[in-house]
Amino acid sequence: MKAKIKHYIKEFILFVIFITIVTNVISLYKSQSLTKEPLQLNYKFPHADKPILVHFWATWCPVCKVEAPNIQTLSKYYNVVTIAVKSDKNNIKNYMKKNNLNFKVINDSDGFIAEQFHINVYPSTFIYNKDKKLIFSEVGYTSTFGMWVRLLYSEF
Q1: Where does the chain show beta strands of DSSP type E?
Q2: Which residues contact 11 (CB under 8 A, 6 or more apart)?
Q3: What is the rounded CA–CA span in Å between residue 44 and residue 61?
Q4: Could you give the CA distance from residue 76 to residue 32 in angstroms, rounded to a whole number?
Q5: Backbone angles phi, psi at 144, to 5 degrees
Q6: CB neighbour list of residue 46: distance below 8 Å, 6 or more residues apart
Q7: How far apart are CA 104 and CA 52, in angstroms?
Q8: Which CATH number is 33-154 given?
Q9: Which residues contact residue 54 at a Cβ distance below 8 angstroms, ignoring those fewer than 6 apart?
Q10: How much is the pTM?
């Protein structure tokens, strides 16, 4: 019986590792189409010496909802600007209130900004260093820890 349980645990761990590798490869592949241009935002960020996280999301995106608390946490320590794509202004306001979120949101109701960044998958995240040079781009869900590590790396 114990051998059977160990076998299932081992299979589960291998499955999780496999899925993690596959999702990261897919994310890397999909992020290749994202823009590589320097960030051009006329916004004075509160942490001038810190990297900038630009996050594209939508109120209608289920993965974005799961990732929103990660963005909220990081917004306390880093420069974070989010862009809500093809989401109604009132929906954004209600979404933020309902989920107790207060990070900065730009409403991209017609998807123009997302188009400039070549966004096809939500959420999509860009991390720029303090000089607004792109360091990382991600598509799909990213954990708080994963984003935090990338932001820390971007400080150097």
Answers
A1: 52-57, 79-85, 104-108, 124-128, 134-139
A2: none
A3: 28
A4: 29
A5: -55, -45
A6: 79
A7: 12
A8: 3.40.30.10
A9: 39, 41, 81, 82, 83, 125, 126, 127, 128
A10: 0.76
Yes or no: say if 92 and 119 are a contact pair by the CB < 8 Å rule.
no
Mean pLDDT (the chain) is: 84
User: Two tokens at 129?
Assistant: 């260093």
Owner of token pair 């809500």: 84
Contact 80, 103 (CB under 8 A): yes
**pLDDT one-digit tens code per residue, 99-147:** 999 999 999 999 999 988 888 889 999 999 988 888 888 888 888 898 9
Enter the tokens of residue 146.
Answer: 């994963």
